[in-house]
Sequence to fold (517 residues):
Amino acid sequence: MKMIDPHVHMTSRTTDDYAAMAAAGITALVEPAFWLGQPRTTAGSFVDYFNSLLGWERFRASQFGIRHFCTIGLNPKEANNPKLACEVIDLLPRFLAKDGVVAVGELGFDDQTDDEAKWFTRQLEIAREFDLPVLVHTPHRDKKQGTIRTIELLRSLNYPEEKVLIDHNNEETLPIVLNTGCWAGHSIYPNTKMDEHRMAALVKRYGTGRMIVNSAADWGISDPLKVPKTTEAMRALGIPEESIHEVVWNNPVSFFSQSGRFDVADLAEPPAIDRSLLYEANSVLRGERR
Amino acid sequence: MTMNDSVRYRLQSALQVRTSGEAARWLEEALKEAQRGSQARLLALYTEASMRLGRLPLAAHAGEHSTATLEGLALEDWTLEDAARATFLLARADSATPDLFEADARACYEMGDAREQQSWLRAVGLLPAPERFLALVVDACRTNILPVFEAVACGNPYPSRYFPDRNWNQMVMKSLFNGVRLERITGLSARANTELARMATDFAAERRAAGRPVPADIGLALSSAAA
Fold:
């Protein structure tokens, strides 16, 4: 079965991961801009990071037959650095205009501070200007309250809910999100957040409408094969193939297609693999070039 | 003698007892240079402390626990490099103007590796006018490097003295989330508040809904409601 991983930080992963994802049926992915584990102290680091998402990482993915899309935004953790936040927000229009940028994000709440609320709001305004969907991170701590605040903020701005994907849901927050018009993302992790069996149970209970599954794999303990593993868990629970296809393909396609930059026809055909190709004189090959 | 002076005196005498030979000579010179030298020298010494003094505990044996826990400062967790770095900054504060001192102290943190940042965060409450570093210390809690987080959250009186409720509550919740024992947080019961109890209650509900264990010490945050 063809699958999309609609949230995975490939910058932190190896070519082995790309190969395993492709072998497991993942043909496209979305890499949201987030923080790197170590706080950045200058806006220049963001310029290089955004450029690597649009350049080198997209090229790397293509070498394994995977289409790479990304989202660009200021994450909530680094939104708490006032000087940095101002400078990064000023950079966003330049990058949001680019092809393959399918949403603004990740944005949202982390510690739920006033600064986070301010830059969350500002980025929603920018997303509206660019007519792009938004990918919203929800906090690890005080998640339920953070999700409620997120929805209150969206509603206070009258933001079109069908253009919002609220991510990292769990048993407590999912019913709250499904009560709105927003899409509900689930990050399937080895230890925290959500696992594939709990996820399958949620699909069985709530159906497939606006339900999205991702690995959110990054530099922490995580697994880029969690979307295929969730597919297996759904099968094991007797969920029909059409329903599984809704969750791991149709839903992310429908959501990100709202950007006008997520071409479904194009997706049906994976990029041709030619590993002798170079990106700015670099190849994914190591010393095995002809 | 103020509380901070007395901690400083303890740090210096503990360092004297624990160092000898080459290390002791280096430390004596370094202290003078930290006070009067350029910022570049201060940064170099701040870094060098680990290689010169190592990471041996400041209090070598259990009988010396009386030197520890001055106003909730867990000196028993400190290493020789932590103590040396703290005395460097305190010496610097003696001779620099307040503005220059602040710039020098910030540079030590911002240019520091994870160990240097831990040393810095453990000592921040001893620095003159420590409230000026509040934003920095709050931001340090956002780290994913657990030992750096623990340098703020555990055995350190700074958060309970200076953190606003919102940041305090985030710190306690992050401790719960990461399996850091709440009893290690200085001033937990004194900073009890109903919002924290609400957050801890929600956290327990979330864990139960996920079929996951609730940390055994969550009661220390929940008891906030009654306090």
Q: What stands out?
A: Chain A has a mean pLDDT of 93.
